[in-house]
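Quick one - inputs below.
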Amino acid sequence: MNGLRKVNQNGRNTTANVHELTAVCMLAGKILLENGAETYRVEDTMNRLARSFSVYEAQSFVTPTGIIFAIEGCDVTQVVRITHRGTNLRKVTEVNSLSRLAAGGKTDLESTHEQLKRIDRSTRGYKEWLQILAAAIASSCFLLMFLGKWNDLLPAFIAGGAGQAGVIYFHRLTRVKFFSEFMSSILIGLIAWASVKAGIGMEINKIIIGAVMPLVPGVPITNAVRDVMAGDLVSGLSKSAEAGLTAFAIGTGVAFALALN
Amino acid sequence: MSFAIIFLIQAITSFIATCAFGIIYNIPLKPLVHGGLIGSIAWLIYFFLYQSNGNDFLATFVASFVIALMSQIFARLCKNPVILYSVSGIIPLVPGGLTYTIMSRAVGDNYNLAIHLGEKAFVLSGAIAMGLIFAEVLYQIFKRTFLRWNRNRPDRIAIFRK
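Output:
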């Protein structure tokens, strides 16, 4: 119980106990992992949180599907299963700044726990219509970046927005990521084909590439590569499998839509 | 079209596209604009490097290197996670269009071309990764060499600690 003794010796956080510290670290790790942080950041934040509350012997092991956290010398080991992973970098930022506060000794254990629970519950962020609009705008911008024609701006705008809306809707319907990405890329392919058929669009490939970009797994790819290079081999390989599956879903979806015609 | 117009269109569209990606990923407003700036600069580097010598490996590598370096600097200055700045800038470099082409060729029974392009996509992802890691290593070396006051702070280097 080395960690606990140190807490008491410091005279700060005398009511703190190892179990609450473990709960705090687990919650922080869970929020980070569920919202798209890199593996090394999750492990680092958990260990730092433990250290800033005077427990120096904490170990954490993070994979994309679960976290194991243990404190040496205490009978404290916890496992958390992570079932869904999205990308909400606002929560990552909030946990990061909370961990900085804790490292500076500016919050105690209880208030840190309260703050983490508040972050976990919060649904603050950009609204869904704004995200759909952003995807639509991004698609038409990508069309211009890839040297597409100005005539194709409107089809790319519509297809990109429809793709993002499709992902949100189908994901809510089934909770299967592969399926929602597959369905929305079919949607994108059909819209692009229809617009070319109706004479609004000109180059079907450019429209599709622009509209598909919001679905491309950019965060998983970036994180996977960093994880592998940092030595987190398990997380890196499983994240690249996830990214590869998404790319496969998008590719087959579009190809399916084009084969239908 | 003259050079200036192309430059202006590419700069504005890449800035807007990167910012829009930040909205999809729920990045807070201030890092969103910084990330857009980083993405725009990196895309301009990629675009004109690719146009001038036609080597997309080099262009992707340099652009992702610039993204990672600027993200490190911004993250250090604003005390935010690095991923906030780098993630949306990477998106235009990810060979998404190429992946689509591969799949459509494979579905069209054109397997040789699909495998050929697949190798290319793999190499380009490797270029992005190498750019990111090179920048990070360079930044750590710089920090160890020039910022001596940092030495007695343990565990500043999270990624190469293990």
